Amino acid sequence: MTLQVDQPTLRRRIFLLVLTDFLWGMGWYFVSFTTTVPAYLRSLGAPTICIGVMATTMSALPMVLPLFGRSVIDRFPHRKIGIIILHLIFILPYFLIAAMDMVYAHTAPQLVILFLLVVLAFSQVILGLILPVWIDMVAQIIPQEMHGRYFGMTSSAFACGGILGGVGLTILQQMAGSAVFRRAFFVAGTFFVLAMLAFAFTPIPESAFVHLPEPSIFTRMRKALSAAHPRTNFGRFVMSYGVQILAISSVAFLADYASSTRGLHYPRAIFSTINLYQAIGGTVGALILGTLVDRVGPRWPWIGLTCIIPLLALLMPFGGHFPLLMLCALLSGLLITHWSVGAPALLELSPRGDKSGYVAVANMLALPSSVFGPLLIAHLIDGVSYSAGFLLAAIAGILALLVALTLSPRAATDNPD
Predict the structure, then answer these.
(1) CATH H-level, domain 7-202+216-412: superfamily
(2) Residue 166: strand, helix, or coil
(3) What's the pLDDT at 113?
(4) Could you give the CA distance from residue 224 to residue 359 in angstroms, rounded to a whole number?
(5) Rounded CA gap, 148 and 278, in Å?
(6) What are the boundaries of each domain within the chain?
(7) How far is Cα 53 from Cα 48, in angstroms, rounded to an integer?
(8) What is the tens place of the pLDDT at every residue in 191-240?
(9) Mean pLDDT across the chain, nearest whole number?
(10) Residue 328, Cα to own-chain centre: how many angstroms?
(11) From 61's CA, which of 4, 115, 245, 277 has a CA 20 to 30 Å away?
């Protein structure tokens, strides 16, 4: 149930939450795992499989412990402060990576690679504890009829911040030379901290985190798994979501493909340009898709988003023509901000009550795709070709689309919020 609030407070709340995502997007696009981090790993001499491990780390580990998020947050006397503390724990590794690069990048690059993979893994596990509670918080404090526009605005703000982050990364690349990566991680951590400062000033009552107690975590899991049965609209969406996650894994290899001698032969510096165009695509697309969710429901926006995956795989081999490469970057930016449709869809299609358990189970069911998708694509790239990896993504995208087509229109959804 959405908490009632006066309009001035609601406007201030939405403004500060949008600002939070804007600042977070500025930081994230400095260290995007689809562009900057793969380029950084390559600069350290990492093989393709390391990029696959990194992509698995970033996409899969947030889905490992999400069901425990509510229990962890409830241990804090003030739950909003608890969310901020967990975010700060998430942020710390970015400063540590910058420090490691400064000390060991030239003398022990393999150590830096290992350290980056380990601390980012830890960071993503923490993120997994936060996300379900965060999504449920939004369900409580934002009116249900605004969920699509809200997630569209925040996803667009995230990507819009990414445009500035992408420009900043390009400037930093020209100024810093080989030090660009350590400075990018430091700047990203700084913007993440500023985002949490904006969130700290957001008016969110403690009641937004309070629900009737569940008998046990196993009861919550059993209830959520039951709701995810394929006979329900929610269950079919979760199936499509899980397969789509596998397909989206291919985006992590886009910049690497562009600069590889086995790919499109662009200079290594192309990663910052791709980063910028991804941010532009995400900014425009997220706002449009989020607004459409409020108008027509999640079915058609999700179908449209899923169609992009096979289209991207079809266009990528022709990316040697620079305009087509930039078109691919724009389209992949939409996939990066797929949460503008996925989040309101999870809220609308799941049963009433505490949404954190349903979000957690949806992510847990998508875990196999998140774990094996990037590794399988990396294996195909190394063993066969980039085209083989992108073909797998296209097939997964088509399967996700076929499942999405079975979703019912809004009027026939199973459990409206």
Answers:
(1) MFS general substrate transporter like domains (1.20.1250.20)
(2) helix
(3) 94
(4) 9
(5) 21
(6) 7-202+216-412
(7) 9
(8) 999 999 999 999 998 888 876 665 566 676 677 778 778 888 889 999 99
(9) 85
(10) 18
(11) 277
